[in-house]
């Protein structure tokens, strides 16, 4: 298996010749040919079949890294995956991950599935903000918290948020991201327009001192704060993930629906509401034919470690969604803009 990375216009395109590894039915797949070179390549085959892990969110908690991600629990007769859950894995080095558990439904809002977690550490606890699944326009954001990062207490008022149906949104909320901004928390979410054709991003907020239940969250803007406009974004912007540098917010987002291909863009804001794209091109494109992410590089999850190093976690696959893996890249900052700063030597 040959490994090469190509650098183009400040982004990194993996041209790794990738073949799905052989595996026994189990719970976690760490692709050693990548791991041995310091490259994360993680999947979950607890559902049987090919490795399948999506929608990464990472925090550091009590000396360990925790990875929260979406994993399906079964396969319908028609071949479509159903029964989504949230998987939990831990790591000491951000490269090799050990599966801990799959969260199971505990609240009526989760009966059709729940997934796409966002994670944030607040007051010594891990808080998850995740979406319901399988309810179309009625999907919404839920909240849970944990003292150990593994066992979570659900918010009794779940779901805690969805936008009111209106001129710009069908009322759906998925792909949560929660960011601490002074005395408030910002809740970013993806939604659909009233025709249910175009995916958009909105933002709500709650007081940092509140209990974060459903009565606490209010829309900050009664409109989409970013919507697909560029050709590569097609009809979808989703999975917003936020980091702050100085007085600026940076949003990594997914453009295009899965495998169209989905690719990752980046936008900047001074207030968290009004956003400007950094480029007309993707920040991270899908890989070349034969690479592990040939079908997409999608659903970003940005993470800043205790030493200040920024990492971009993301999902990809090479088979149009028959399998899904999670990986990451180091992000550096040059002239107040994010750039890929991966230690892998191109060859």
What does this molecule look like?
By secondary structure, this protein is an all-beta fold. The chain has one domain (5-340): Tachylectin-2, Chain A (5 Propeller). 1% of the residues lie in helices and 44% in strands. It contains one helix and 26 strands. It has one helix at residues 32-35, and strands at residues 5-8, 11-14, 29-30, 42-43, 54-61, 64-71, 74-75, 81-82, 85-91, 98-102, 114-122, 125-132, 141-146, 153-154, 174-181, 184-192, 199-207, 218-219, 237-245, 248-255, 263-269, 276-277, 296-304, 310-317, 325-334, 337-340. A four-stranded antiparallel beta sheet has the order 5-6-9-10, with no helix packed on it. It has a four-stranded antiparallel beta sheet with strand order 11-12-13-14, with no helix packed on it. A four-stranded antiparallel beta sheet has the order 15-16-17-18, with no helix packed on it. The longest helix has 4 residues, at 32-35. It is globular and about 50 Å long. It starts with a strand and ends in a 7-residue tail after the last strand.
């Amino acid at each position: 298996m040959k490994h090469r990375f190509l650098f183009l216009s400040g982004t990194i395109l993996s041209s790794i010749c990738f073949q799905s590894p052989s595996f026994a039915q189990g719970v976690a797949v760490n692709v050693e040919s990548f791991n041995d070179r310091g490259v994360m390549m993680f999947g979950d085959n607890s559902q049987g079949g090919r490795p399948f892990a999506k929608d990464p969110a990472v925090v550091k908690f009590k000396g360990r890294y925790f990875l929260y991600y979406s994993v399906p629990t079964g396969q319908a007769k028609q071949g479509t995956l159903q029964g989504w859950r949230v998987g939990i894995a831990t790591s000491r080095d951000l490269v090799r991950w050990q599966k801990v558990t799959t969260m199971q439904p505990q609240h009526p809002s989760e009966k059709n599935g729940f997934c796409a977690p966002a994670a944030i550490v607040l007051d010594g606890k891990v808080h998850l903000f995740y979406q319901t699944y399988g309810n179309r326009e009625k999907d919404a954001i839920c909240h849970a918290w944990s003292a150990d990062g593994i066992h979570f207490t659900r918010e009794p008022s779940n779901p805690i948020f969805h936008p009111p149906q209106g001129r710009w949104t069908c009322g759906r909320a998925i792909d949560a991201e929660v960011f601490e901004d002074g005395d408030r928390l910002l809740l970013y979410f993806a939604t659909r327009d009233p025709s249910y054709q175009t995916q958009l991003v909105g933002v709500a907020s709650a007081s940092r001192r509140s209990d974060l239940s459903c009565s606490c969250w209010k829309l900050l803007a009664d409109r989409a704060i970013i919507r697909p406009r560029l050709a590569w974004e097609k009809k979808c912007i989703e999975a917003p993930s936020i980091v702050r540098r100085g007085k600026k917010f940076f949003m990594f987002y997914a453009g295009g629906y899965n495998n169209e291909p989905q690719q990752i863009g980046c936008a900047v804001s001074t207030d968290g509401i009004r956003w400007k794209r950094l480029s007309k091109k993707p920040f991270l494109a899908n890989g070349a034919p034969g690479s592990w992410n040939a079908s997409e590089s999608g659903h970003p999850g940005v993470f800043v470690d205790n030493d200040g190093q920024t990492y971009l976690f993301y999902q990809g696959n090479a088979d149009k969604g028959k399998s899904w893996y999670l990986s990451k890249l180091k992000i550096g900052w040059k002239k107040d803009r994010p750039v890929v700063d991966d230690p892998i030597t191109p060859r």
